[in-house]
Amino acid sequence: MNADSVLPRRHAPGPGAPRANVPPPGRRGRRSLARQGAAAAFHGAGAVTAVLLVLAAIGAVIGEPVLIPSLAASAGVLHSTPTLPVAQPRSVVVAHLLGAGAGYAVLAPAGSTPWSAALAGGLTFAATTLARTPHSPACATAVVVVLQAPAPARFVPLLFGATVILVLAGYAASRVRRGAARYPVRWW
Questions:
Q1: CB-based contacts of 77-84 (< 8 A; 24+ apart in sequence)
Q2: Rounded CA gap, 92 and 71, in Å?
Q3: What are 109-126's pLDDT values in tens digits?
Q4: Do the beta carbons of residue 141 and residue 70 sit within 8 Å?
Q5: Residue pLDDT, tens place only, 46-93
Q6: Share of the chain above pLDDT 90, in %
Q7: Given 16, 41, 125, 151, which residue has the most CB atoms within 10 angstroms?
């Protein structure tokens, strides 16, 4: 049996082919789509900047750094892809805590070296995959823990609070712009 006997023949459309399946042109042209894209980019950039400024301000008030590079990456992920699993609250919060845990677990026996930081990043990826909380910026949290060796009693609560602020800012930002994707798709 060959494919020609099972599958119906379709003719390639040419200049004279009927256009029954082609929808009529819509009201939105390229300029309209470009304006929508620019509005979304402006909105996202504003939301990311605002939440990172809030984290920086909190850090300045309490005298502890709350803004770390991995949280800036999380803000970008959350505001650029709010409907993907990597941006959902469970992934953001739990993955960063797993990253901190992996960082401290490697820091204790191996010390603060680039090799142990790399190991902590890999362990974080494995832990977040097993926990079904994918969030790649959490790997950077593990690296920060190993290379900076912050005190866990201060760092972990600040990290938790910062991730909650990121999630709440994502929620608020998705409600401000009309037509924006709603965040989160699921809370847990």
A1: 77/135, 77/136, 77/137, 78/166, 78/167, 78/170, 78/183, 79/44, 79/47, 79/48, 79/170, 79/173, 80/44, 82/170, 82/174, 82/180, 82/181, 82/182, 82/183, 82/184, 82/185, 83/181, 83/183, 83/185
A2: 9
A3: 999 999 999 999 999 999
A4: yes
A5: 899 999 999 999 999 999 888 899 999 999 999 999 999 999 999 999
A6: 66
A7: 125
The per-residue pLDDT for range 129-184, each reduced to its tens digit, is 999 999 999 999 999 999 999 999 999 999 999 999 999 999 999 998 887 889 99
The CA distance from 172 to 47, in Å, is 9
Query: Which one-letter DSSP state was computed for residue 1?
Result: -
What is the total residue count of the chain?
Answer: 188
Give the span between the Cα atoms of 174 and 172, in whole angstroms. Answer: 5
Other beta carbons within 10 Å of 151: 8
Q: What single-letter amino acid sits at 26? A: G
Angstrom distances, CA of residue 39 to CA of 53, 109, 122, 132 = 21, 49, 37, 33
- Estimate to the nearest angstrom the gap between the alpha carbon of 67 and the chain centroid: 16
Residue 181 is encoded by which pair of tokens? 């994707």
Name the token pair of 125: 């990826």
